[in-house]
Amino acid sequence: MTGLLLIQLGTPDAPTYRGLFPYLRQFLSDPRVIEVPRPIWLPLLYLRILPFRSGASAAKYARIWDPKTGSPLLHYTVEQTKLLQEHFPSNPVKFGMIVGNPPLRDTIHDMIAGGVDKLIAMPMFPQYSATSFASATDSLFKALTKVRRVPAVRVVPPYYNHPGYLDAMEATIRDDLAKLAWEPEHIVISFHGIPQKYAQRGDPYATHVVRTTQALVKRMGWPRSYWTQTYQSRFGRSEWLKPYTDDVLATLAKKGTKRVYVALPGFTADCLETIDEIGTESREVFEHAGGEHLKNGTCLNAHPKWIEGMARILRDEGHGWL
Ligand SMILES: C=CC1=C(C)c2cc3[nH]c(cc4nc(cc5[nH]c(cc1n2)c(C)c5CCC(=O)O)C(CCC(=O)O)=C4C)c(C)c3C=C
Ligand SMILES: [Fe+2]
Ligand SMILES: [Fe+2]
């Protein structure tokens, strides 16, 4: 039996210091995410970063935590899985997290115990970066080292230019724009960043980002002067891919731009980085510099076009298996 597996980054169990500490510890111990040699990084992580960032990030997560459904990232991942299952009534569709709960390892073990001998995995990152996509495949293959009957495995290729993904992204942006009470004067297309060094060492992320952006602006019919592609969520003091989202927003506002829509095509579900970082922190940056309206884009979430898009991407990889 063929099983379908969504691999998402993961989220803390609770928006508290105790929820964040193990989450950040696991995330930031991943050598795919932090390429600094362990003897240098681990003392820094345990002495400087975890004690401070756990509290600071907990406060941010508390702002996006839903009293009923908890973390938006987990909520939408559950929804995506449930709705995708309707497209594949004869195949188990499950999800697992790289970091935190439910761990990918548990999901995979349950699927294999349930009779899955062919597995199609879909990392929930449209643009390949070793820090995200390869971290997902590392988790997957690591989990399989603990299994006696390893299934045949396929991993969907990065889908930054797949029509299933682009159709869904276009529909999501069009829905958002139709709901706005004001007309944006400029569109910022913001992606999660990575350190510049990683790109110089061969990570193709920036190329995938550019390809997605080019395809989207063409579909939307946006002239070159109407949009700017940026990178957000810088971590630490090194240089990350530029231009930084907040710098561009501040410059736009200082030049007199009052209304901006921020599209977020790199994120497959609403999360801390889209709701709080862009919707609260970057909005403040924009407003302090003289801007008036900033709308953070909705992510793909459970949009019917995205559920259909995921099904198309999985079917393409599932030839002969589905
Ligand atoms: C060096 C650090 C980081 C790299 C590189 C990085 C790449 C990267 N991340 C995402 C997607 C998400 N990241 C999220 C949270 C988050 N990211 C980092 C650090 C790096 N990410 C941290 C420390 C955190 C935790 C929050 C914080 O303390 O800032 C999330 C949100 C998860 C949620 O629970 O809502 C997502 C999604 C991508 C796509 C990516 C590389 C392309
Ligand atoms: Fe991140
Ligand atoms: Fe962040």
Automatic annotation (TrEMBL):
Gene3D superfamilies: 3.40.50.1400. Its EC number is 4.98.1.1. It catalyses: Fe-coproporphyrin III + 2 H(+) = coproporphyrin III + Fe(2+); heme b + 2 H(+) = protoporphyrin IX + Fe(2+). Keywords: Cytoplasm, Heme biosynthesis, Iron, Lyase, Metal-binding, Porphyrin biosynthesis. SUPFAM superfamilies: Chelatase. Pathway: Porphyrin-containing compound metabolism; protoheme biosynthesis; protoheme from protoporphyrin-IX: step 1/1. GO terms for molecular function: ferrochelatase activity; metal ion binding. It is found in: Cytoplasm. GO terms for cellular component: cytoplasm. PANTHER family: FERROCHELATASE, FERROCHELATASE, MITOCHONDRIAL. Belongs to the ferrochelatase family. This is Ferrochelatase.
